Amino acid sequence: xxxxxxxxxxxxxxxxxxxxxxxxxxxxxxxxxxxxxxxxxxxxxxxxxxxxxxxxxxxxxxxxxxxxxxxxxxxxxxxxxxxxxxxxxxxxxxxxxxxxxxxxxxxxxxxxxxxxxxxxxxxxxxxxxxxxxxxxxxxxxxxxxxxxxxxxxxxxxxxxxxxxxxxxxxxxxxxxxxxxxxxxxxxxxxxxxxxxxxxxxxxxxxxxxxxxxxxxxxxxxxxxxxxxxxxxxxxxxxxxxxxxxxxxxxxxxxxxxxxxxxxxxxxxxxxxxxxxxxxxxxxxxxxxxxxxxxxxxxxxxxxxxxxxxxxxxxxxxxxxxxxxxxxxxxxxxxxxxxxxxxxxxxxxxxxxxxxxxxxxxxxxxxxxxxxxxxxxxxxxxxxxxxxxxxxxxxxxxxxxxxxxxxxxxxxxxxxxxxxxxxxxxxxxxxxxxxxxxxxxxxxxxxxxxxxxxxxxx
Length: 457
Description:
By secondary structure, the chain is an alpha/beta fold.
């Protein structure tokens, strides 16, 4: 946005402005003189003078600088910053934030890190399903102006070139940067840093570093060793070995790591809050309460305590199991027979879907593994083509496995991909592969051949 663009103060901003200049023992006139703006400008922001056309952004920045506050303390952040979320991530962010609660200890740690350091890297570590992507998405939504990138291996959005392209796009949109077509990340950050106003920071969220596809020995996504002041990266990833870290930074750059596995009690509190939220409101409320009533002497509190223990503090488990209970998938199962942990849930679902029956349902198994071999979202018709199964069988499999799939309806026909990479990891476990009687190499080769045949038609 341009400095000459106009904005209006928020109701909270009017109050913040008044408190800020009074705390410095300034009058409205004195504030105007120090900021080199008119007294009428101050009155418009305070709401004591009509402001039909708004106040220019540069004037708000001057006033905020004098008062040592942020422009967003005066103007609502959603009005101050342009909408920056790339279309490529809108569906993911919406999905990850539809049902979100807790994680306050994470956001407090991030805020404290930014407050106490001039720049730096803040990295969130956690196992699959612990809510890392949801934390990243929630932060982006609640902090307008945040730059973001979500590595999505299944969609091919996990390479340095795609990362740089979308980061450049967002930075250019936010500050109208010029002559940056060939700029690398470090150059972009330096240019953006020069545009920051007093009290303003540049925060870049990068989710799922473990899904990055990049050869060589440099930093993942070529993240800079040195950061300009007021530039912060919030990173998320699964646990890593020293060889997998690939984040070499200068000793002068602050770094902090928050390992979700070390915050069991905090996470357990958040898990219980999540269960209560689904139990007391939303589309699953009735189904969950009806299931509880069918159990012998089971209270809501007992349900919450037991499910939270079985979840092992894994939000992906809750996302799968709670809807399944509400929709009747476990109607014949008592509470003590529900699966334990995310891997336990995957195993349970695999068995309940008949994937271990004798004889093996090879057509259905092949469809699942063909989807596993595909690297991007694909339509039902293409799944049928690549697996060489009929549309009816494919439709049945997609319905049975709906809770593990993301249906992308922005495409026509709709496309499907695995909702979470942990399910793909489960399918590739040696014991599951052997029990299913499949060859991942052969299936991948067959999919590749079918794709080539399609291109040749």
